[in-house]
Amino acid sequence: MIDEFGFKATVNETIIYDFNATLLHLMGLDHERLTYYHNGLERRLTNVHGHVVRDVLA
Questions:
Q1: Which Pfam family name is an example for this entry (predicted)?
Q2: For a designed S-S bond to 17, which of 6, 8, 37, 49 qualifies (C-beta 3.0 to 4.6 A apart)?
């Protein structure tokens, strides 16, 4: 469901980190273990926010 202007979702809203985690899951990668080294730190593509959205998976 979207707002009256069709601008933003109001129900089941997901964030970009969830989208990335779901795509990585579909490619067979664990988004919580996949890291890269940047500026002296190990970082994750999904930061600490991403969750796999299982409602969209068949």
A1: DUF1501
A2: 49
